[in-house]
Specification:
Shape: globular
Largest sheet: 11 strands, mixed
Number of helices: 13
CATH topology of the largest domain: Peroxisomal Thiolase, Chain A, domain 1
Structural class: alpha/beta
Order of helices and strands: EEHEEHHEHHHEHEHEHEHEHEHHEEEE
Number of domains: 2
Number of strands: 15
Helix content: 25-40%
Length: about 400
């Protein structure tokens, strides 16, 4: 089995362009959530989201191809370029030995919404002839592969909110077993379009106020968008070319609840965490910090807290836990990538980012997360969780490289 290391990271989020902007916002508790309004939604009820700023999107589009790409692909490419630049990979180091696995839950929402709106107004209206290539969920992965000439295994894992985490985990498995030498992996999502936003509204899982995971008085999540991309490679490959190693991906676990489509099962989440920790050759006592799925909904936190207690037992009271979704929003298919990037940064800097907007411990949960202010720690391993609609659970464990 080969060891798998991270040599590059990139991000586009509501916190700005770049991995450092995302990490600094998470660490310092600076939320990218702000007002959002859709002219075509006169009865819009939820009026906040973690959207990428107009200036940042303009900068992204300056290096993209609007006639052939949707927003979801443009931000994935921007994040991938940053990750590849940090990795120091040369153009001749991609080819058949480099794969691309980029998760996406929805695909080209902006293009789809524009076409549906035009068709509803006039069925004879001309739609974008590049609609299908723009909308397909594998577009980000395919465009990233073309950008760098990565001709190895290329795929899109689409498992709702765990898409990115599973993509990173599967990429690590491919490298570990020698099927790839390196892989560009992560997730991208850009579904802040009126029709999609309305669909989330009617699910009644979004808050009209502040997202406050694990807190007393929490009442829902806040939607976000973004892309998080990693360059993963075998330890031998990284050392051979003298790359700077950021951290090691030590463990990956994924399970399916095989239960309710929307209601999570604590047993499934616990099994994914247990599998990831065991895969890393660690025990729960070795995990210093957990970036929780923590959406801010009543049901999610009840389930995740029960799962955490099942895995960590009494040690949960001394294990640092937080959710960074109030900072960057719930980016759905990209959420796991943004959160794993934050987790890796937390591991490197030995600082656990806070759960902002936290008011008080919910007696029904009894969990006291890292509240409102970051907290220093000393530890060699951290974990990131993603639990998705459809009962798809995934956890990743990062370990300090030595």
């Amino acid at each position: 089995m080969k060891r798998v290391v991270i040599t590059g990271m990139g991000a586009v989020s509501a916190c700005g362009l770049g991995a450092d902007r995302l990490w600094q916002a998470a660490r310092d508790g600076l939320s990218g959530v702000g007002p959002i309004a859709f002219e075509s939604m006169p009865r819009q009820q939820v009026k906040n989201a973690a959207s990428i700023s107009p200036d940042d999107i303009a900068a992204v589009w300056a290096s993209a191809k609007p006639r052939a790409q949707d927003r979801v692909t443009a931000i994935a490419l921007a994040a991938a370029r940053e990750a590849v630049a940090q990795s120091g990979l040369a153009p001749d180091q991609f080819g058949p030995s480099c794969g691309v696995i980029i998760g996406c839950g929805y695909g080209g929402a902006e293009t789809n919404d524009r076409n549906v709106t035009a068709f509803a107004r006039d069925p004879l209206a001309r739609v974008d002839p590049m609609s299908i290539p723009k909308i397909m969920t594998n577009a980000p992965a395919s465009w990233v592969g073309m950008e760098f000439g990565a001709r190895g295994m290329t795929m899109c894992i689409s498992t709702a909110c765990s898409s990115a985490t599973q993509s990173i985990g599967m990429a690590a498995l491919m490298i570990r077993h020698g099927l790839l030498t390196r892989c560009i992996a992560g997730g991208s999502e850009a579904l802040l379009a009126p029709s999609v936003f309305r669909a989330w509204e009617v699910l009644r899982v979004m808050t009209a106020g502040l997202c406050r995971p694990f807190s007393e008085g929490r009442d829902g999540m806040v939607i976000g968008e973004g892309a998080g991309i990693f360059v993963l490679e075998s330890l031998e490959s990284a050392q051979e070319r003298g790359a700077t190693i950021i951290a090691e991906i030590a463990g990956y676990g994924t399970t399916g609840d095989a239960g309710d489509l929307l209601r999570p099962d604590p047993a499934g989440a616990a099994a994914a965490m247990t599998a990831a920790i065991a895969d890393a050759g660690l025990t729960p006592a070795d995990v210093a910090y957990v970036n929780a799925h923590g959406t801010g909904t009543v049901a999610n936190e009840a389930s995740e807290t029960q799962a955490l207690r099942s895995v960590f037992g009494q040690r949960l009271d001394t294990t640092l836990v937080s959710s960074t979704k109030p900072i960057h929003g719930h980016a759905l298919g990209a959420a796991g990538a943004l959160e794993f990037l934050i987790t890796v940064k937390a591991l490197v800097e030995q600082v656990a980012p806070p759960t902002i907007n936290f008011t008080a411990v919910d007696p029904s949960l009894g969990i006291d997360p890292v509240a409102n202010v970051a907290r220093a720690f000393a530890g060699d391993a951290c974990m990131s969780n993603s639990f998705a609609f459809g009962g798809v659970n995934a956890s990743l464990v990062a370990r300090r490289f030595s």
